[in-house]
Amino acid sequence: xxxxxxxxxxxxxxxxxxVQIIExxxxxIVDRADKIFFPDRRVxxxxxxxxxxxxxPRLASQAPVYYYGVGLNHLDLDIINRRLTDSGxxxxxxxxxxxxxxxxxxxxxx
Length: 110
Known about the structure:
By secondary structure, the protein is of the alpha/beta class. The chain contains four helices and six strands; from the N terminus they run E-H-E-H-E-H-E-H-E-E. It has helices spanning 11-21, 34-37, 50-62, 74-85, and strands spanning 5-6, 27-30, 42-44, 65-70, 89-97, 100-107.
């Protein structure tokens, strides 16, 4: 499966495209890009935080959940997915925006 790649698009173009993809009721996890999505989407941060990981199962059961940040290499994505597996969740890349990417966190049991 080939993902759309948008080389070096400005943050406004990336934001506009990401907002088209992300459902209005979704929660977006960010590391530094909270101003890109707020107030159009609910935002929490950061991804690599114990409180965020603890909240993910409940969040994912109530609304679509996305992560937007620096694109993860395969090793980093695998490490995060191993951590999410205990909660029945997985993270998949949706679209690439230059050095940043959008990922969807979803329940793999359904």
